[in-house]
Write a structure and sequence with these properties.
about 300 residues; mainly alpha; Tetracycline Repressor, domain 2; 2 domains; 13 helices; globular; UbiA_prenyltransferase
Length: about 300
């Protein structure tokens, strides 16, 4: 064929039923936001700190993880249904399955109901009182979805509170002793992450997708990020002082405090210097320094818990 002669193509073959089914299944899977499950994997296991019988606690931890994965996915689906019009104004969120119209609202509702049914079945496996953190999480997010997300500061406080509840769920499941100081440190750290995300969103050309942004400014968020960072370090240091005991375990626990301080400083650098923060999970997972220091911190915490 002459190179100057355009290639003649026939009409594109219609999508088969199998292809369409796969695409719909893929969109339903995206609606669950599996990339966000890593948050549960990182936070829920913190509840195992201080637990000595790890062989039995591991099964309890798996239950707590499944509970919060199903619960958080249900919340994501409900949020996508309610926020579909606002999401269409966002440069990234407009491509979400419900906002783009690829998943009908009716299908999303069925998926949310199925996930909530799964939460109920998981709760039935243990005494109902053991599941109070996930129930509190769901109730908080009902309020968030139906109006509280429009109130500046309260919106990120609810998000951060959800992570403190994840920690408490892991601790209760593993039959450990929840630490108020550690829960406060988790809450403060997540306030810092959420404030960093709002700081990034203020810089977007169109902020109509999130009405709470009207209650924020960059200087205010910088102060809030700093306050949350200091609170994270202070409460964690007090927690270390609470659990410290002389010996090899104490050395690793003290080292974890130094490493946590390094992680906080690194996150501040990512947000305030490198202008990141729009997706805390992605930013942290793609930063080599954070990954290495985070792994070493986790090892120190585990060793400090296991050693006498």
């Amino acid at each position: 064929m002459d190179v100057l002669t355009p290639e003649i193509r026939g009409p594109r073959p219609p999508a088969t039923a199998a292809t369409t089914a796969r695409e719909k299944a893929a969109d339903l899977w995206r609606l669950l936001r599996p990339q966000q499950w890593v948050k549960n994997v990182f936070v829920v296991p913190i509840g195992m700190l201080g637990v000595t019988a790890w062989n039995t606690a591991a099964l309890d931890l798996a239950w707590a993880l499944a509970l919060f994965i199903a619960g958080s996915s249900a919340v994501y689906v409900v949020n996508d249904i309610i926020d579909r019009d606002a999401d269409r104004l966002h440069p990234v969120k407009r491509s979400r399955p419900v906002a783009s119209g690829r998943v009908p609202v009716s299908a999303a509702v069925v998926l949310a109901v199925a996930l909530l049914a799964g939460v109920g079945l998981l709760m039935a496996l243990r005494p109902i009182v053991d599941s109070w953190p996930v129930v509190a999480y769901l109730l908080l997010n009902v309020g968030y979805s139906f109006g509280l997300k429009r109130i500046a500061v309260l919106d990120i406080a609810i998000v951060a509170g959800g992570f403190a509840l994840r920690y408490l769920q892991g601790s209760i499941a593993a039959e450990g002793e929840p630490s108020v100081l550690l829960a406060a440190s988790v809450f403060a750290a997540c306030m810092m992450f959420a404030a960093g995300k709002r700081r990034h969103e203020i810089g977007l050309a169109d902020t109509r997708h999130r009405s709470a942004l009207a209650g924020y400014s960059v200087p205010f968020l910088d102060q809030l990020i700093g306050l949350a960072a200091v609170t994270t370090l202070l409460t964690y240091a007090l927690h270390v002082n609470e659990i410290f005991s002389p010996g090899a375990s104490g050395v690793f626990v003290l080292l974890s405090a130094v490493l946590v301080a390094g992680l906080v400083v690194r996150y501040l650098q990512l947000v305030l210097v490198k202008r990141q923060g729009g997706d805390p999970s992605k930013d942290i997972a793609s930063d080599r320094v954070t990954i290495v220091v985070g792994i070493v911190t986790g090892v120190c915490l585990v060793v400090g818990t296991v050693l006498p």
